[in-house]
Amino acid sequence: MVISPLLRGRKLSNQMGFTSKHTRTVRDEKGVKRRVREYFYGYKMHTSFNVEAQMITSVVVSSGQKHDGHYLPPLIESDVNQGVVIGICSADRGYDDINNHIFLQRRGICSAIHLRRYRTRKKDANKEIWLERVAEPWYKPSLRQRYQIERKFGEAKQYHGLRRCRYLGLDRYAIQAYLTAIALNLKRLVRFLTGVPLKGSVTALA
For the chain, what percent of residues have pLDDT higher than 70? Predict the structure, then answer.
């Protein structure tokens, strides 16, 4: 069974509006721990990744304030239109939207979206369906595969300039995102065909 895709909404700088990124624990001047919410100003690159092929299969971009969950269906539809066989879809909590779970179910795709805590910890009978989902034998192994797409984004940021947007405007950022995905896939293809890994940035020789 092909586990595809892994999804990720990556926050980038030079966005069209401020939005919340995440919270982290810090110590104040008295040494007391407290939670601080961080914000960013940039675009997002929503990406699907085929674990078996180790290649990016679809890319959708959005402004940073957009909700990640809205971009799962377009990624899945794009993969399906390309003939990608999808058995399980794993994604981070940003994609945990009830409409996405229903969408995947209707498509016959197992949903391994990382569930938000309130789904399994609330004190009513509705949590049972989510507890059953977590207990499925494919759920946790699929979530553990997500490090692969995180590693791919790390490579894109470190070696291919994806940490910052080169040009303002969503259309211009989309060009950067697509070209970055192409470069990453070409590096993977070279390794697949020749066995030679291309580490770091790719340099053109004339």
Answer: 83
